[in-house]
Design a protein that fits this description.
Length: about 500
């Protein structure tokens, strides 16, 4: 942390000329963030290889695919192994699948790959129809779908490698200069640094309301004021400017800043005062040149919620049938470890404040509740939770069940009865008193066996951070998001991260 005491305010550097570059192809090179060039080159080679490989497999499996080119095999090979891969690369590029703004972050990269696949399918269909070429529809369809799936897998794997480099080595990031008043800039700094794998690295703050607002305040990065922003970006080695909140009240200043950055190789992003709102809920609707940011209400009812409920109950019923042998083995282990009930049933607060009794395998000795009063002062968490990493009330088999999350499996019964969901905020004990303020919003959806809280750190998170993640899920949930959390849960459970 840096302590803001005094600064040398320099005069503004000469302004760069406004206006677009003379050629759209003559874009300025980015001064620092050059990771995307080798990364994109690797993606291009892998995408080309994926298309050629799938074509080879499809043709080898279905020889009739080449029947329309039997008279000219060389032409067929040229189309299958050169022109088709090059066409894929061109359409991926045209759809922005190599744009550095979408690499390694969010779902836009995958959507653009799917969009390119649809374009390829339409193009191949049109060319085959126009030239009256006899192609195997099954083979062509298999090749197109296989290529799309393989490219998506390649992108996913490459993203994992990129995110690992960002987390562990600090490589392949976007160095940001935050512009605005200090509270807004610090809020953006806090938000973008929560996830190091996103690759957003604030390196400086430029205050628009004068340096006096930051005197005596500790800041995580150096603070400047009264400087030419583009010169400051070059000085600190930045490649992105983030305008935070209401950075300026002067109309047209943001537009002039965008003009100044044209051709400089520096990206400009605007971080409005909308925190923890997912992209699908935000829509830009321009009115007479004014881009209005519309925020849609969360989807807490309708067909998507019905589909979620059906998916929950079907998966819970199937899971209970398949897990009967495991349940029996765990029950025997619990009884041998500590005589008493196999299950632990505790009142929890569920959807819209209704109380229900959650099913869990018992992991503590039968006198655990009586021993709680003597351990309160050893609580290692805050808020409404009580957690001790080495809780003496947990017997050895129970410790294994907790670490592996096997003690949570009986909650499939709660899911089957409609009291819980597979994904959602974790249900809190009913004896913790009334839920006040923002915490009550968790009750708008059914509690879940797993959730954003669990896949983001579990018991290692503070209470405030856990509540923030749960509220984010409530406001932005979707079926695709649920599937993503379920997938991430597998890795968290195997790693036993934050489980005690």
């Amino acid at each position: 942390m840096r302590h803001v005491d005094s600064f040398e305010i320099q005069g503004p550097a000469p302004q760069s000329p406004n206006g677009v570059p003379r050629s759209a192809w003559a874009r300025a090179r980015r001064r620092v963030s050059r990771w995307h060039r080798p990364y994109t080159a690797v993606l291009v080679l892998l995408d080309f290889g994926a298309v050629a490989l799938v074509s080879l497999i499809a043709i080898a499996s279905f020889e009739q695919a080449a029947s329309g080119f039997a008279a000219n095999r060389d032409l067929f090979n040229t189309i299958a192994y050169l022109l088709l891969p090059l066409s894929w690369l061109f359409l991926l590029w045209a759809n922005g699948a190599y744009d550095r703004r979408y690499l390694g972050l969010g779902t836009d990269e995958f959507r653009r790959v799917v969009r390119a696949a649809v374009t390829v399918a339409a193009t191949v269909s049109f060319v085959a129809f126009a030239t009256k070429t006899d192609l195997s529809r099954f083979t062509v369809g298999t090749a197109l779908v296989g290529t799309m799936v393989l490219i998506l897998l390649i992108r996913f794997t490459a993203r994992l490698v990129l995110q690992r480099l960002r987390r562990q080595a600090g490589y392949a990031g976007h160095r940001m200069v935050l512009v605005g008043n200090l509270p807004d800039a610090l809020e953006v700094h806090k938000a973008v640094t929560r996830n190091p794998s996103a690759g957003l690295v604030p390196v400086a703050i430029h205050l628009t309301d004068g340096i006096a607002a930051a005197r005596g305040i500790e800041t995580p990065v150096p603070v400047y004021a009264g400087r030419d922003i583009l010169a400051l970006v070059r000085e600190v080695g930045g490649d992105t400017i983030a305008v935070c909140g209401s950075a300026t009240a002067e109309p047209g200043e943001l537009r002039r800043l965008a003009w100044q950055l044209e051709g400089s190789g520096v990206d400009l992003v605007v971080a409005p005062q909308l925190t923890d709102i997912a992209g699908p809920r935000v829509h830009i609707r321009p009115i007479e040149g004014l881009p209005l940011l519309h925020v849609e209400e969360p989807t807490l009812s309708g067909p998507a919620l019905l589909a979620k409920s059906l998916l929950d109950r079907c998966a819970a019923g199937l899971g209970l049938l398949l897990l009967v042998p495991l349940f029996i083995a765990i029950a025997v282990a619990i009884r041998l470890s500590d005589p008493g009930p196999v299950f632990f049933r505790q009142p929890r607060v569920g959807h819209e404040g209704r109380t229900f009794r959650v099913w869990k395998f018992r992991t503590m000795y039968v006198d655990a509740e009586d021993r709680l009063a003597g351990l309160v002062d050893q609580n290692e968490t805050d808020g409404m939770l009580f957690k001790i990493k080495q809780d003496p009330r947990v017997f050895p088999i129970g410790r294994f069940l907790r670490a592996s999350s096997l003690d949570e499996l009986p909650q499939l019964i709660n899911v089957l009865w409609g009291e819980m969901s597979l994904v959602g905020p974790r249900p809190l004990p009913a004896d913790d008193g009334d839920f006040l303020g923002d915490v009550r919003r968790r009750l708008l959806v059914r509690p879940g066996m797993t959730g954003l809280w669990q896949v983001s750190g579990r018991s290692d998170l503070s209470w405030d951070e856990s509540v923030r993640l749960d509220l984010y899920y409530v406001d932005n949930w979707s079926l695709a998001y649920d599937l993503s959390i379920l997938w991430r849960t597998i890795g968290v459970v195997l790693a036993r991260k934050g489980a005690y």
